[in-house]
Amino acid sequence: MEGRDNNGFIGDGSSSVAGQFRWNTPAIAPGRPGTATIQLTDVELTGGKPTNGETVQQHSAIPEPAADRDQWGKGVEFLMSCIAMSVGLGNVWRFPFVALENGGGAFVIPYIIVLLLVGKPIYYMEMIIGQFSSRGSVKVYDMAPIMRGVGYGQMLSTTIVTTYYASLMATTLRYLFDSFQSILPWAVCADSWAGSCIPSGGVRNATAEATEALSNSSTFAVSLSNRTSSAELYFTKVVLKELDGIDDGIGLPDLRLTLFLVLSWSLVLLTLIKGVKSSGKASYFLALFPYVVMTVLLVRACTLPGAVDGIVYFLKPQWNKILDPRVWYAAVTQCFFSLSICFGNIIMYSSYNKFRHNVYRDATIVTSIDTFTSLLAGCTIFGILGHLAHVTGTTDVGNVVKSDAGLAFISYPEAIAKFEVLPQAFSVLFFLMLFVLGIGSNVAMTSCVMTVIKDQFPRVRNWQAASIIAVCGVLLGSIYVTPGGQYILKLVDYYGASSITLVLAIAELIAICWVYGVDRLCKDTEFMLGHRPSIYWRLCWRWITPLLMFVILIYNLVTLQPLMYKQYVYPTVAYGIGWCIFAFGLMQLPIWAAYAVYKQSGKSLTEKIRNAFKPIAAWGPIDPA
């Protein structure tokens, strides 16, 4: 490819105009299979000394033909897969309550600003670099070998998230199957909970009637605030069998949850059995079905008494919070994890595109739909919670819900249990929607790990890679379905995903926007799509997005608090394990940087380091044509 100024390839001094870039297919030396005779005039191609136009023998310099790499059957499959990946559980249960805690409607304003300055630029950038190179999230750093540790660190985080994400899907399946019972099991109090339980539903059993009989006594009135809803007790005592702490161990895996875990991974395996060819076909259902359910739930929610009050409560701005830095921090983190940026998934998915696919259009569509879905889910959920507040006689919608995992498995089931007409039907729809959303996101994360494996070991078949990951996922996921599993999930998520991902995201931006360079990225885009990114994209990539991410990291470090789970302080050894996971992820950066320098050609250490910052000889589109 010609255009030396910004791409490190052979340059003829021509201006950067689409169509003037030329990829020269290397000639194979006669009788020397796999050896290419390449005319090189730039040290950036060889990673060594200038060749002054001489012929250099390069082994393995020719990229494999594009035909050897899977591709999406249709461009719309890529779009649907991105929607299924980005629109996940975070949109349905996290966004509404992050908004509620941070100013309601006023939170939406910082969120949209952050989406424009961080979310969209990174999403588009990752789509460009993945499609241009046809490389997965690790090999894409052939553009700057010294930064390859970013890819390995992101793969580690993705693997960690994949293991516990499947355990949430297993819990969702447990609730889905329980929803087919004639009486929702979390709607009533078990006999063993007498004296400590308030029924969540309208159905009364013997325990509930006895409780109601005591309701006029002063003792009951005093102790009412200390009682727990049947939905919460069902989640903690029946589903999780949760321990009060993990000082004495985490216990053995629950049999039912383990079986549901196996079922979840089996469905992921079937979806990925043929790589993107099979997952692309499944993406239509995974992307569209949740919207059908969400629309049904929204229509039903809006017809419930008190629903309008809940929606107004969700959208009403609290302007005094808009200048609070915590609101902006919440907006960045929500946008970050909602879109799945900087996890390697987007780079992986776009690497299976055809070279001329319009990723600009797709990036705009996906980021817009993701925001729309969050708002739609917020209106749906708060319509239901507004009805719940109406039924319970409270005017404060914010006090009828619990956050975190309890949001999906306590508050929503409790709200559904109070439906007077067919609560089972709405429960089935809700948990089926959650499960489909989870499958879509987990398929993307598993595909990312699969792609890294197949890029390193091309002879490994899709079904083999998927089977290995599924078996490992079941074994590791069984940790999270133990009585102490939620403690481990919180620990691993904090140290292995949330914290480290922010650091790796900044490293990715440095690698692509500064080491590789925005100018190179723009020329690559122009060569691929026929138009040069506007000043908006260039400013965001070079300055605005990296600076915002750096400010967020500093704020995160300044406000760092010891991790706790339900006010439980972890044992010292648990914090030690957490920091070891965090350190292992960060150590990928110096380890692979040192390896890249070691593998470079050059007479001095300085020359080796300089060459490690430059693209390798084979960098570029994988198809020589």
Provide an overview of this structure.
Na(+) binds at residues 87, 91, 338, 437, 441. It is found in: Membrane. GO terms for molecular function: amino acid:sodium symporter activity; L-amino acid transmembrane transporter activity; metal ion binding. Its main location: membrane. Helices cover 63% and strands 3% of the residues. By secondary structure, the protein is mainly α. The protein is globular, with a radius of gyration of 27 Å. The termini are close together.
Key attributes of the depicted protein:
single chain, 625 residues, mainly alpha, 3-stranded antiparallel beta sheet, two-stranded parallel ribbon, 22 helices, 7 strands, 63% helix, 3% strand, disordered N terminus, transport, sodium, glycoprotein
Quick structural gist:
With 625 residues, the protein is mainly α. It contains 22 helices and seven strands.
Number of DSSP E strands: 7
Overall helicity: 55-70%
Strand order, largest beta sheet: 1-2-3
Mean pLDDT: 82
Sum up the overall morphology in one term.
globular
* Major sheet details: 3 strands, antiparallel
* Structural class by SSE content: mainly alpha
Fraction in beta strands:
under 5%
Indicate the radius of gyration in whole angstroms.
27 Å
Low-pLDDT ranges: 1-67, 204-225
- H/I helix tally: 22
Order of helices and strands: HEEHEHHHHEHHEHHHHHHHHHHHHEEHH
Terminal Cα separation, in Å? 11 Å
Keywords: Amino-acid transport, Glycoprotein, Ion transport, Membrane, Metal-binding, Sodium, Sodium transport, Symport, Transmembrane, Transmembrane helix, Transport
GO molecular function, one term: amino acid:sodium symporter activity
Binding site for Na(+): 87, 91, 338, 437, 441
Transmembrane segments: 78-95, 107-125, 146-166, 255-273, 285-307, 327-348, 369-389, 428-453, 465-482, 494-518, 539-558, 573-598
